[in-house]
Specification:
Residues 144-215 form the HTH luxR-type domain. The chain is an alpha/beta fold. The protein is built from 10 helices and 6 strands. A 6-stranded parallel sheet has the order 2-1-3-4-5-6, sandwiched between helices.
Length: 216
């Protein structure tokens, strides 16, 4: 698997590249701005891109804009976006139009080799990856009318893992329950929230997050 790494911090860029090489990935290019990233994707045709949201010159959302451009122009390329801060709005913006092969993680997590490799593997498989901290922030927001009030404690656990992009099999392993039990919980969750179940995991993530963000 070929990966392009984009971050204006030399330390972060080199650190991520090192972990990727140690895990058997080929680092096709290391770049420090969004324009060079787009050029590298065109030239190298990578399988995956790892990019920081805040890139030169303004350090606002240049990386996010580049990620959106890559997903639109190169739909087979998976994109893992990194952020130093918990910014749910950016996650929603990225997922809205291109939910497949998109991930959003806090930057601190990618220095855990297991987390980085797992996220990239899932993106390569066409899945969605969302940082659990962002999921918790969305699930924990206080509202006068809580759309999740009808859910049991176990259903809330399953919903949080669904929102991270985990498959039913992965949820079963995480919670040490059977996959059939997970399927039953998923059916109950979507029924209680008035959402249609869909076998496409990225669509389930979008539906869950959109519902939570709208406040019901």
């Amino acid at each position: 698997m070929r990966v392009v790494v984009a971050d204006d911090s030399l330390l972060t860029r080199a650190g991520v590249a090192y972990l990727l090489k140690q895990s058997g990935y080929t680092v096709a290019a290391e770049v420090d701005d969004a324009g060079t990233l787009l050029a590298a994707v065109r030239a190298e045709e990578p399988d995956l891109v790892v990019v920081d949201i805040r890139m030169p010159p303004t350090h606002t959302d240049e990386g996010l804009v580049a990620a959106e451009r890559i997903r639109a122009d190169h739909p087979r390329v998976g994109v893992l976006v990194l952020s130093q801060y918990v910014e749910p709005a950016y996650a929603m913006r990225l997922l809205r139009d291109h939910p497949e092969r998109v991930g959003y993680l806090l930057k601190e997590r990618v220095f855990d080799q297991a987390i980085l490799v797992d996220a990239l593997r899932r993106l390569a498989d066409g899945e969605t990856v969302i940082d659990p901290t962002i999921v918790s922030r969305l699930l924990g927001r206080q509202r006068a009318k809580d759309p999740l009030a009808a859910l049991t404690a176990r259903e809330r656990e399953v919903l949080a893992l669904l929102a991270e992009g985990l498959s039913n099999k992965a949820i079963a392993a995480r919670l040490t329950i059977t996959e059939r039990t997970v399927e039953a919980h998923v059916a109950q969750i979507f029924g209680k929230l008035g959402l249609l179940d869909d076998p496409s995991s990225h669509r389930r993530v979008l539906a869950v997050l959109a519902f939570i963000r709208s406040g019901g």
